[in-house]
Design a protein that fits this description.
CATH topology of the largest domain: Rossmann fold
Strand content: 15-25%
Structural class: alpha/beta
Main location: cytoplasm
Protein name: Isoleucine--tRNA ligase
Number of helices: 42
Number of strands: 38
CATH class of the largest domain: Alpha Beta
Radius of gyration: 41 Å
CATH architecture of the largest domain: 3-Layer(aba) Sandwich
Enzyme class: ligase
Keywords: Aminoacyl-tRNA synthetase, ATP-binding, Cytoplasm, Ligase, Metal-binding, Nucleotide-binding, Protein biosynthesis, Zinc
Cofactor: Zn(2+)
Strand order of the largest sheet: 10-8-9-6-5-13
Largest sheet: 6 strands, mixed
Length: 1159
């Protein structure tokens, strides 16, 4: 690849992308490591129904760096892409686009059509995702992704669920769950954890009047006034002290140590103090008159361990249907379990307050409840209260805690295993292990697993209503089953399954002439003599098969084939139009070559439809419709179907649940015996197929699939729920390869990475599914990434207008600048306050600095391989400056490798930053003169070696910049096919590095003294005094004579002397002044050379016009100036010349000077 040594820019990256694609470098990097040990990586599946954002770039480059590094260290790192396709996010988008407001409207629209729309929606931004993934350099197998809606993926998920069912870890129960009334479904605790918001809302202090008492009230407090109509009890702490307080004409009862906060507005007098146990059993009057809630247990005071005095009144209002603690107390005490709120989150009745059909969290409903309490004398006060409240993580509606029937997984039973498995995981940052994630595991709750939705993996539980209601325990025990495979559908089919034999017609005239011919045939194409004979040869085989029925296409060649066989078997033929040849439309009667030229890739036959004809999807649909009709009409029959190549392979492929690309593999097998008499034999299925003829395990098709009850023989029906979408992605280690049906299993992952919010999401569900499968931790190492915030530290959102478009950043600055920013700005677990200025800084200080080093190398170096190796062998005779830079290089390699092995990316990157500074701002600056002298070959060899090793070192971090450096250093293959560099300890010289640090510190002191004196560096000075080496506390850092020369060059002084302190002789003699003026002239001329586009090899003529003093100085030091600027001759002129390459006017010591250059 030819990558010009221009200044590195986004266009350079695009050229490198083209090179990678053209040379298949990613594929080569995998093939190169094929025999090696595997390093297992899991890609957390994104959803392509939304655009990728800057936070996705962050996670993807962190994944990429580790995968690239491990590949270069010798591992085979498979990188299978994945797509998360189910769930509420997709459903809500489809609802919005279709204008559907709720579940009733979805069902009226049609679940099948709704889910079809959902399936189409999930791919809306796939192309943008693929482009961004490619552009940022994230190498990922996008051609063979796992897709969570595909039948084989779902089948693997079902297998896991069936395993959980067999372990008695999956159960159905009626209890309080977090519930979204807008979405009409329960949520799991890890979903709830992602949706908390800090809100300011009304809290209400209530007075419950005790029965059989005069004006005595017990006080309670709630932040959810909507639950008050459902109140049936109050709870106190048995050992809590409660005061009876006189306020006006009423006696109020509340916890002693909350009295001050609650009654701060009232004058008060304590009448007496009791323990909570003294209040137990007292009756009170209800707030609302609701007959259904009344029984002998209702409206009493009960003891409860969850009551505390941290806030409120020390008395808890109990509504069993709307709180977990409330529900448990209700079970214990036998309280009424009647809903006052429906599943739409609306009040069922008025309840004497005009509440019917009002949304419980609406302001109107709250106002009416508070007004009702005022009117009844039950309201003490309303107070604003700030607290965290859970909202739906997708639709942002406030959640309700609501008692209903749901399915759960017994995660609490696996708590010890979850905690133990976590101990084996390396977390970056480490505090998450026992902090955010570890604490979550310690408090783990049973997984609310089911969702009352549509676009998701169906919960594979089938139940027999009759057996479930039976008094016989044996029947009830088998009334429900978990289906874990497609084969189980066949085994449990209410009907005995048919067997199918598909036969392609024998060779016909159109085959011989290579003509495609469909209905209506333009010519009659009978079987050839050869074709008829080949069919006749099959008759003995068919006789052994006990054929019951024969169906055939009604085209001449299939008719003749069917007649030969039917005659021999003495069977009737049924002709069916659905079995006809693929309709070639406008191509009917044309050559095979013409037909295939329409598609390019074979798989395009599914999407490209010829004019007036069919695509393969159309053919598949009618063939599957035919098979569904036959399966419905017949059972336990052996059925011969005589048709054509495309219809047969489309039918068998779809019927068996193959993917489109697998269809053509089937086609290859099918035609292996040539074009005639080809046979495919399959067993029928009791599987669900959608309206397009595809195997589809979603609702409504799977709901319509009856299974035979193993106990009573009657029909079993599937429960209505789908599963939590997070289980889909959590199951990906198994489902991505269709395990256990395909025995391939890559488990556990060596590495995963996502945002810190996934501690409640994918990180947890992977961990949970691994424990449920008894496989141990699902991953060994995880990098948890902090959120990207705006520059002010605020969350990015469309409403705030502070979202960063990743494409804009990449197009302007390039991806490697952004990658380096993400890796170095702060450790991965910390939030990133995204700043374009910081990206620009990384571009300038790292990317462009290295690019300029490369350009310098290409411009000034002269090196061959032999030069480098000869020089490299003579390590001890190298210049100290070269020994130092190689020592720094290998020390950096050592540090970077050590930290990458620990997954500490930022700590791995920062030594590289420091090395680039050493290389560009010290070694290269101090070596510039060496590139024009006798050391040219040697110093060029060192720089070439540094650039090549550096290319490999930064390759995982900034893959484009690494490729740019590598190729411009004279290499043809990709740097990403190289091994990662190893530090050679014999080149690491700690003493020399300390000495050089002392040199640079000393030079910095000298430059600071120059600046203090206002003397520019180009002006030579005579002396620089530095502290005596004997007084230095670190003997290793004492500066040898050779390195003192570097200080002299850097500070631009003639001699170094030793004394008690740093001191600079600022006296400028006439001779020193002359040298300074010559240096100023040289700088001006070099700048003009660069602006004129000249190379160092281009000799020039220099013309100078100035005063007599300048002329005298130039004449005196002409040789020095000629050498420094690469001039053939310098001529002092009296007038300005024309026809020059470049000329310039400027001032020197307040004197007008003109310089012109001719090439």
């Amino acid at each position: 690849m030819k990558i010009m040594a221009e200044l590195f820019n986004p266009k350079t990256e695009e050229k490198i992308l083209e090179f990678w694609k053209r040379e298949r470098v990613f594929e080569k990097s995998l093939k190169l490591r094929q025999p090696a040990s595997k390093f297992i990586f899991y890609e957390g599946p994104p959803s392509a129904n939304g655009r990728p954002g800057i936070h996705h770039v962050l996670s993807r480059v962190y994944k990429d760096i580790i995968c690239r590094y491990k590949t270069m260290t010798g591992f085979y790192v498979g990188r299978k892409a994945g797509w998360d396709t189910h769930g509420l996010p997709v459903e809500l988008q489809v609802e919005k686009e279709l204008g559907l407001k709720n579940k009733k409207e979805i069902e009226k629209y049609g679940v099948g059509k709704f889910n079809q729309k959902a399936q189409e929606t999930v791919w809306r931004y796939k192309e943008e995702w693929d482009k961004l993934t490619e552009r940022i350099g994230f190498w990922l197998d996008l051609k063979n992704p796992y897709i969570t809606y595909e039948p084989h993926y779902i089948e693997s998920v079902w297998q896991i669920i069936a395993r959980i069912w067999k372990q008695n870890l999956l159960y159905e129960d009626f209890k309080v769950v977090p519930y979204c009334a807008r979405c009409g479904t329960a949520l799991s605790s890890h979903e709830v954890a992602q949706g908390y918001e800090n809100v300011l809302e009304n809290s209400v202090y209530l007075k419950f009047k005790l029965k059989n008492s005069k004006n005595t009230f017990i006080l309670s407090w709630t932040t959810t006034p909507w639950t008050l109509p459902g109140n049936v009890a109050l709870a106190v702490g048995r050992d809590i002290k409660y005061d009876f307080v006189k306020v006006n004409n009423e006696t109020l009862i509340l916890a002693q140590n909350l009295k001050k906060d609650v009654l701060e507005e009232f004058s008060q007098k304590v009448l007496k103090t009791v323990s909570g146990k003294d209040l137990i059993g007292l009756n009170y009057e209800s707030l609302f008159d609701i007959r259904q809630l009344k029984n002998d247990k209702s409206y009493k005071i009960y003891p409860a361990g969850f009551v505390n005095t941290e806030e409120g009144t020390g008395i808890v209002h109990i509504a069993p249907m709307y709180g977990v603690d409330d529900f448990n107390l209700g079970n214990f005490a036998g309280l009424s379990k009647i809903h006052t709120v429906n599943l739409e989150g609306k009040f069922i009745e008025d309840f004497g307050a005009g509440l019917k059909n009002l949304a419980v969290k609406s302001q109107r409903a709250e106002n009416l409840i508070i007004q009702h309490l005022k009117n009844s004398g039950n309201l003490l006060r309303v107070k604003k209260y700030q607290h965290d409240y859970p909202f739906c993580w997708r639709c942002a509606s406030p959640l309700l805690y609501y008692a209903k029937t749901s399915w759960f997984i017994r995660m609490e039973k696996l708590k010890k295993k979850l905690v133990a498995n976590n101990r084996k995981i390396n977390w970056v940052p480490s505090h998450i292990k026992n902090g955010r994630f570890g604490e979550w595991l310690k408090e783990v709750k049973d997984w609310a697993f089911s969702r009352e939705r549509y676009w998701g993996t169906p919960l594979p539980i089938w139940r027999c209503k009759d057996c479930l209601a039976s008094p016989d325990p044996a029947k009830r025990g088998g009334a429900q089953i978990a289906v874990g495979s497609l084969s189980a559908f066949d085994e449990l089919s209410p009907k005995k399954l048919n067997k199918y034999i598909f036969l392609r017609h024998g060779e016909a005239e159109n085959n011989r002439q290579k003509i495609v011919s469909s209905y209506p045939e333009k010519k009659k194409y009978p079987l050839t003599i050869k074709g008829a004979k080949e069919i006749e040869k099959l008759i003995p085989w068919f006789k052994k098969k006990n054929i019951d029925l024969i169906f055939s296409s009604d085209l001449l060649r299939t008719k003749e084939t069917a007649q030969i066989i039917a005659g021999a078997l003495n069977k009737k033929i049924t002709y069916d139009k659905q079995l006809r040849e693929h309709d070639f439309g406008a191509y009917n009667g044309r050559t095979h070559e013409d037909w295939h030229s329409l598609f390019g890739d074979k798989t395009n036959q599914y999407s490209i439809r010829p004019p007036s004809g069919e695509n393969l999807k159309d053919v598949q649909k009618r063939m599957i419709d035919f098979l569904k009709m036959v399966d419905k009409k017949y059972e336990n029959k052996t059925i011969l179907i005589i048709s054509h190549a495309n219809p047969i392979i489309a039918a068998v492929s779809a019927y068996q649940g193959y993917k489109n690309e697998e269809t053509f593999n089937l086609g290859k097998k099918y035609t292996i015996d040539g074009i005639t008499g080809s046979i495919l034999e399959i067993t029928g299925h009791n599987w669900p197929y959608n309206n397009e003829g595809n195997l589809d395990l979603h609702r409504p098709y799977v709901d319509e699939l009856p299974l035979k009850c193993g106990k009573c023989g009657e029909s079993m029906k599937r429960v209505k729920e789908v599963i939590d979408v997070w289980f889909d992605s959590g199951a990906m280690p198994f489902a991505q390869f269709h395990y256990p049906f395909n025995k391939k299993l890559e488990y556990p992952a060596d590495f995963i990475s996502e945002g810190v919010d996934q501690t409640r999401g994918w990180f947890y569900t992977l961990h949970a599914v691994g424990a449920l499968m008894g496989k141990g931790p699902a991953y060994k190492n995880v990098i948890s990434l902090g959120h990207i915030l705006d520059e002010k530290g605020e969350k990015m959102s469309k409403s705030k207008g502070n979202i960063i478009d990743p494409w804009e950043v990449i197009d302007k600055y390039g991806i490697d600048a952004l990658r380096w920013y993400f890796f170095t700005i702060n450790p991965p677990g910390e939030p990133k306050h995204f700043s374009i200025r910081d990206v620009e800084d990384k571009l300038r200080r790292f990317v462009l600095t290295l690019s300029n080093v490369l350009i310098f190398y290409k411009t000034y170096s002269k090196v061959s391989k032999s030069d480098f190796y000869n020089y490299y062998r003579s390590w001890t005779s190298m210049a100290s400056l070269d020994q130092w830079i190689l020592s720094r290089l290998h020390q950096t390699i050592k540090e970077t490798r050590k930290n990458l092995e620990k997954y500490e990316v930022t700590q791995a990157a920062r030594p590289i930053d420091e090395f680039i500074d050493d290389l560009s701002r010290w070694w290269l600056r101090r070596s510039r003169d060496r590139f024009s002298g006798k050391e040219l070959n040697a110093v060029s060899a060192v720089l070439k070696n540094v650039i090549e090793e550096l290319s490999k070192l930064i390759a995982p971090f900034t893959p484009f910049l690494a490729e740019y450096l590598w190729h411009n250093a004279g290499n043809k293959e990709s740097v990403h096919l190289e091994d990662y560099p190893k530090a050679n300890t014999k080149y690491i010289n700690v003493k020399l590095e300390e000495q050089m640090a002392a040199v640079r510190n000393t030079a910095a002191k000298g430059l600071a003294l120059r600046a203090e004196a206002g003397i520019k560096v180009r002006q030579p000075l005579q002396k620089f005094q530095i502290p005596n080496p004997k007084s230095q506390t670190k003997p290793k850092a004492q500066i040898p004579n050779e390195l003192l020369e570097l200080i002299k060059d850097e500070v631009n002084i003639k001699e170094i002397i030793f004394g008690d302190k740093f001191e600079l002789d600022t006296k400028i003699t006439a001779e020193l002044r002359e040298e300074g003026l010559i240096r100023d002239l040289a700088r001006q001329i070099q700048g003009m050379r660069k602006d004129g586009g000249l190379t160092p090899k281009d000799a020039i003529m220099v013309y100078i016009k100035g005063g007599a003093d300048l002329k005298k100085i130039v004449s005196k030091l002409q040789k020095t100036l000629i050498s420094e600027v690469g001039a053939k001759k310098i001529e002092f002129v009296g007038v300005v010349k024309d026809g020059l390459l470049i000329d310039r006017h400027f001032k020197m010591e307040n004197e007008d000077v003109w310089i012109g250059i001719r090439h």
